[in-house]
Specification:
Elements: H1 3-7, E1 13-14, E2 17-18, H2 20-23, H3 29-43, E3 54-60, E4 67-77, E5 84-87, H4 95-102, E6 105-110, E7 113-121, H5 124-137, H6 139-150, H7 158-167, E8 170-175
Antiparallel strand pairs: 1-2, 3-4, 3-6, 4-5, 5-8, 6-7, 7-8
């Protein structure tokens, strides 16, 4: 697979119809409601239902200064440092990604545990290693993720994972106590 194949999303059709137009703009209507529904689980103290596969990110708006919330799938967790790793599915244009560039101090909730953390973009080589482990641990989720985000199912090779994170950067959330 070439870099152009990764960075160019093709029209994809799945059981929900054509997803590509939905991923190229901010969600609205029912799709926005669906994306925001997990936030309510955390607000109702039911985040534990999502386990450690998702996290709630509280971040500060880069323009408004208002606290924003986003639920993101976890692709890795370092048990030694406590860091959690996520991928920006909407690439470098995602609002939460832009916000943490300006204000990296965030609050993260995983399951029923919350902590202050510092967000940082993971270097591409390290990110490719983390994504490769995620693909090995969760092959079905990786296939679906690549199909939705890239427009095709990719093989979980390190080279493909490296190209993936070049398009969709990986972010770490390191608990403040580890600094």
């Amino acid at each position: 697979m070439t870099t152009s194949q990764v960075t160019t999303r093709r029209n994809i059709t799945c059981r929900w119809g054509n997803l590509l137009p939905l991923l190229n703009r901010k969600p609205s209507g029912l799709l926005r409601f669906g994306f925001r529904l997990p936030i309510w689980l955390y607000r109702w103290r039911l985040g534990w239902l999502l386990g450690e596969r998702f996290l709630l990110l509280n971040h500060t708006g880069r323009k408004s200064g208002v606290v924003r919330q986003t639920v993101i799938e976890v692709v890795g967790h370092d048990k030694v440092t406590g860091a959690y790793y996520v991928v920006s599915g909407f690439g470098r244009k995602a609002d939460w990604f832009l916000n943490i560039q300006k204000e990296p101090e965030v609050k993260v909730t995983v399951g029923s545990r919350s902590f202050e953390a510092e967000a940082g973009v993971v270097p591409e080589n390290e990110a490719a290693d983390i994504l490769s482990r995620y693909a090995a641990d969760h092959p079905l989720a990786f296939r679906e993720l690549s199909k939705i985000l890239l427009g095709e199912t990719i093989q979980p090779t390190r080279e493909n994972c490296l190209q993936f994170v070049q398009t969709m950067p990986m972010v770490s959330f390191l608990p403040m106590k580890q600094k």
